[in-house]
Amino acid sequence: PWGRSVNTFYGHTDRMPSLASVDDLRALRVGVVEDYSYGDAVDAILTAEGANVLRVAASRRAFPLLVMRLATKQVDVIIEDLNVATAGLAEIDMAESIKAVEVDFMEPDDLFVACTPNARGQGYIALFDAGMAKARAEGKLAEILTKYELDDWMTVE
Questions:
Q1: How many Cβ atoms sit within 10 Å of the Cβ of residue 77?
Q2: How many CA atoms within 13 Å lie on the side-chain side of 19?
Q3: Is 101 buried (19+), middle (13-18) or exposed (0-12) by CB count in 10 A?
Q4: Does residue 138 have a pLDDT over 70?
């Protein structure tokens, strides 16, 4: 994999919601990015009749807008990719008041980049794989990830 993604739920430290299962979202006001998919189970709840969902337009400002909705009590929980949220919370200096809600029902997905199966595409894959291995071995990948407060997906379980 060239990365890892997991949708994560975030709450305000003053009022962290409890999520024992995905069904617990039904009782909450949920902030999400419009037209994003969060997996079949979560999407079914977000589109169900009576769901209390605040949607923001997909843009570079989407996550900060959701964080502000959470901070101003317009929503109880927001959903975002762990990598996006970790970097975003650090960037807007909200990492102390907005925290991930502990859940055990969301699984991470490995990320891949598709390339054409011809020789040129295979060459790009080999170059990327070699570059990533070198960056990891020399500590350059860790240096880059640290700037965004992220961890190497190959060393995190």
A1: 22
A2: 26
A3: middle
A4: yes
List, in sequence order, every residue forming a beta bridge with 8; answer none if it has no partner. 80
**DSSP string across the chain:** --EEE-EEEEEETTSPPP-SSGGGGGGSEEEEETT----HHHHHHHHSTT-EEEEE-SSTTHHHHHHHHHHTTS-SEEEEEHHHHHHHHHHTT-TTTEEEPP-SS---EEE-----SSHHHHHHHHHHHHHHHHHHHTTHHHHHHHHTT---TTT--
Q: Could you tell me the pLDDT band of residue 156, with boundaries at 50, 70 and 90?
A: low
Q: Are the CB atoms for 74 and 97 separated by under 8 Å?
A: no
The mean pLDDT of 107-117, rounded to a whole number, is 87
